[in-house]
């Protein structure tokens, strides 16, 4: 409404100015100089009034936007103007000012709310611009990095030169691990970075987290599980040796001492021989167990080379086919990315895939319509992967966390280091081995590189 009224009055003034100019020209030509002078005065007055009218409105609007720019919402325009167009314009500007003020206050409240959340967050958060200036750093990150206040990443050089170098070279979507030592403690920090855009400026958002406690808990939990398994295996081997040794000693004892040599019978010798054979067998089992532990700890550094995915899986299928006696199992290979290659130690990864396929075969057993599918490709995160999927009975949820513990096994045979050895090999390749299992549906082992 205001713009329409303003437009109408502007057009009306232009028409009057045009008519005055025509009248001035007409009476000037007719040599009616007095009347022409009157039209000239009217023309000058109308032109001056038009300029004043337009400038007044422009100044008002310019002043309004300048106030908004400076976040000054106290500005009020009078709504009692005699001119209807100005009255409606002032009312509209006042309404717009109130709306913008309301949105501004709401944004301030939300900003303060989010800042309070970030201040009390258990993880450190900071934003860095392209010149290394730290635009925001919550108290937690200042505590973790042992420096306050944080304004520029060069300040981190006073904390630790390696920490500064890490931040100076940090790129978006990277994850880094660093250990810091100060007068208080030694902490392990993980840094995750991503990009955010604020006011057309690209910023690096870095999340800093202390994982020392989690590492200690994981380490303690791993030691507890490993010791439990080791104790179980060693006790199962030692107990028969102790029992049989005691039985053999009892063959040669009586209440008043050892049995005389002349009282020894062939039965004593046979029982002793059988007992020693069992002791030897248990001793060999214990030696094999220790050798398995040694092999787990002494995996050689991977000798990497480029290996075609199709060639690798074909080799594994040939090896598993020679050992597999179950004709009810169907092996399938899926290649989701053409000409896919892996930079790996072919022998070690073949060993991992062969072990996973053997486990799948044993899991399926005599089940009808057994399927083992090996799939190779690249994830959406640009990670190369190989999955081994079977439709066997699966792994119970309560055993998922135990399955990768060295020497833990649910089978009657084997040492129980196959999966833990496989996970160690993937770790040496800079990758990981993950498990997902749905009982009686499918079990999926994923090798990520």
UniProtKB/TrEMBL annotation:
Give GO terms for biological process: osmosensory signaling via phosphorelay pathway
Annotated Gene Ontology MF terms? ATP binding; phosphorelay response regulator activity; protein histidine kinase activity; protein kinase activator activity
Pfam families (UniProt xref): HATPase_c, PAS_8
Q: Mind telling me which InterPro entries this protein's record contains?
A: BphY/WalK/GraS-like, HATPase_C_sf, HATPase_dom, His_kinase_dom, PAS, PAS-like_dom_sf, Sig_transdc_His_kin-like_C
Where does this chain mainly localize?
A: membrane
Question: Which positions, given as ranges, span the membrane?
Answer: 7-27, 33-51
Q: Which UniProt keywords apply?
A: ATP-binding, Kinase, Membrane, Nucleotide-binding, Transferase, Transmembrane, Transmembrane helix, Two-component regulatory system
The record's annotation in CDD domains points to: PAS
**Keyword Secreted assigned:** no
Instruction: Show where the Histidine kinase domain sits.
Output: 229-449
The protein's topology relative to the membrane is: Multi-pass membrane protein
Localization, per the record, is:
Membrane
> Can you quote a single GO CC term?
membrane
SMART domains recorded? HATPase_c (SM00387)
Q: Which domain of life is it from?
A: Bacteria
Q: What is its EC number?
A: 2.7.13.3
Which catalytic reaction applies to this protein?
A: ATP + protein L-histidine = ADP + protein N-phospho-L-histidine
Q: Which residues form the PAS domain?
A: 110-149
Protein name listed in UniProt: histidine kinase
Native species of this protein?
A: Cellulophaga fucicola
């Amino acid at each position: 409404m205001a713009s329409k009224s303003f437009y109408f009055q502007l057009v009306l003034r232009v028409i009057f100015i045009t008519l005055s100019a025509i009248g001035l020209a007409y009476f000037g030509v007719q040599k009616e100089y007095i009347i022409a002078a009157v039209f000239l005065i009217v023309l000058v007055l109308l032109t001056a009034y038009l300029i004043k009218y337009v400038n007044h409105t422009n100044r008002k609007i310019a002043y309004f936007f300048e106030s908004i720019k400076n976040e000054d919402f106290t500005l009020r325009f009078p709504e009692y103007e005699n001119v209807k167009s100005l009255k409606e314009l002032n009312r509209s500007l006042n309404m717009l000012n109130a709306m913008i003020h309301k949105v501004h206050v709401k944004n301030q409240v939300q900003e303060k709310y989010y800042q309070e959340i970030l201040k009390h967050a258990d993880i450190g958060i900071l934003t860095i611009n392209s010149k290394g200036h730290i635009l925001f750093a919550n108290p937690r990150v200042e505590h973790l990095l042992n420096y306050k206040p944080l304004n520029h990443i060069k300040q981190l050089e006073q904390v630790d030169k390696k920490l500064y170098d890490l931040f100076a070279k940090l790129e978006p979507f990277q994850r880094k691990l660093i250990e810091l030592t100060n007068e208080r403690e030694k902490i392990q920090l993980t840094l995750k970075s991503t990009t955010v855009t604020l006011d057309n400026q690209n910023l690096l958002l870095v999340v800093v987290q202390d994982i020392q406690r989690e590492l200690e808990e994981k380490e303690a939990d791993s030691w507890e599980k490993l010791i439990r398994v080791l104790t179980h295996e060693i006790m199962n081997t030692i107990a028969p040796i102790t029992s049989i040794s005691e039985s053999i000693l009892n063959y040669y004892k009586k209440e008043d001492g050892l049995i005389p040599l002349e009282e020894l019978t062939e039965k004593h010798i046979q029982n002793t021989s059988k007992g020693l054979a069992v002791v030897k067998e248990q001793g060999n089992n214990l030696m094999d167990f220790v050798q398995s532990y040694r092999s787990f700890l002494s995996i050689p550094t991977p000798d990497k080379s480029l290996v075609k995915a199709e060639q690798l899986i074909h080799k594994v299928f040939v090896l598993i086919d020679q050992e597999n006696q179950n004709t009810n199992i169907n092996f399938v290979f899926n290649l989701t990315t053409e000409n896919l290659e892996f930079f790996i130690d072919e022998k070690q990864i073949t060993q991992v895939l062969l072990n996973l396929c053997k486990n799948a075969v044993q899991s399926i057993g005599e089940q009808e319509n057994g399927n083992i599918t090996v799939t190779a490709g690249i994830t959406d995160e640009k990670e190369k992967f190989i999955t081994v999927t079977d439709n066997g009975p699966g792994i119970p949820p309560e055993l998922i966390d135990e399955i990768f513990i060295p020497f833990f096994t649910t089978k009657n045979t084997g040492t129980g280091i196959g999966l833990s050895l496989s996970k160690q090999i993937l770790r040496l390749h800079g990758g990981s081995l993950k498990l997902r299992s749905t009982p009686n549906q499918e079990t999926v082992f994923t090798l990520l590189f």
